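Need residues for this backbone.
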């Protein structure tokens, strides 16, 4: 349909712009305009899908390159005897005559053998190829590829929560205290914990996975009805360069005697990944308890220390 419209435009433009037409039949019986409109009785004319056919009664002469540029009569094929014998599929536009198409009509050269030119849909618009497949939005490129089920490992929006880590456990932390197993009422007792970043592997949502656990909080139950929390696990007095019975960020002072059970819980932040992919956060914190400790709290008038007051004047009781 596009070719027919363009051909009609080419024929009409050529007929209208021809400078001279000489009648073959009934010479001098009518004017050029009469012959073009079919008013001349001596000229056979037919009107069809391809324009007005006056070839039976009119000899058409197209000006050559010396008359302002060679348009070529072979608009969709090679040149015709009355035009340039070397005319191409678009007409020869080497001269000043243009491309032989009406104003506003143009060709976009095709890139394959299906067509010698594709009609552009308008200025700045892409070439129209009606036999090219048109992608349908929302349809995967490969229909045979299985779709990803939401909230499975292939889902980029997958949300994993700590309750999903039933098959992957974090290491149990270890707690310590000093003095070890006993304490003095009214004097600081130092507590500390051992927990570190570590990896664990196991099935997660039915697929093999790795989980990275990072300790982010420590909570002690001192056994006397009070508790304390710290962002760090603390350390021994010696590791901190402090004298015995010094107050620390994780120490506690007891006010009464008795046998006490001290508990510790470490909060781990977790990340997971499948098949060595990127680490993604697990929603929530995982609380892992340490084994409890038992200690005896008592009062003492004399406290045994590692050094005498002469060697350590800052020690307890000095």
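Answer:
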């Amino acid at each position: 349909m596009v070719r027919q419209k363009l051909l009609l435009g080419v024929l009409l433009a050529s007929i209208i712009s021809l400078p001279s037409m000489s009648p073959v039949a009934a010479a001098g019986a009518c004017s050029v305009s009469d012959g073009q409109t079919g008013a001349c009785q001596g000229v056979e004319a037919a009107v069809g899908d391809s324009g007005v056919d006056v070839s039976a009664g009119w000899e058409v002469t197209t000006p050559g390159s010396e008359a302002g540029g060679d348009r070529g009569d072979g608009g969709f094929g090679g040149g015709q005897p009355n035009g340039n014998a070397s005319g191409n599929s678009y007409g020869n536009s080497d001269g000043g005559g243009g491309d032989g198409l009406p104003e506003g009509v143009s060709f976009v050269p095709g890139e394959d053998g299906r067509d010698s030119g594709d009609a552009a849909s308008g200025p700045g618009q892409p070439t129209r190829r009606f036999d090219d497949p048109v992608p349908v939005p929302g349809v995967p490129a490969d229909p045979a590829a299985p779709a990803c089920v939401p909230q499975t490992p292939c889902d980029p929006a997958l949300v994993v929560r700590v309750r999903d880590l039933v098959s992957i456990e974090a290491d149990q932390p270890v707690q310590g205290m000093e003095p070890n197993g006993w304490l003095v009422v009214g004097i600081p007792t130092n507590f500390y914990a051992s927990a570190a970043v570590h990896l664990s592997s196991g099935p997660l949502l039915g697929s093999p996975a790795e989980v990275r656990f990072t300790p982010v909080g420590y909570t002690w139950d001192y056994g006397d009805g009070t508790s304390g929390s710290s962002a760090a696990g603390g350390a021994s007095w010696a590791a901190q360069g402090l004298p015995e019975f010094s107050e620390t960020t994780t120490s506690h002072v007891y006010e009464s005697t008795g046998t006490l059970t001290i508990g510790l819980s470490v909060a781990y932040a977790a990340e997971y990944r499948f098949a060595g992919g990127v680490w993604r956060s697990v929603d929530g914190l995982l609380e892992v308890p340490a084994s409890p400790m038992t200690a005896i709290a008592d009062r003492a008038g004399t406290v045994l220390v590692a050094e005498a007051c002469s060697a350590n004047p800052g020690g307890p009781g000095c």
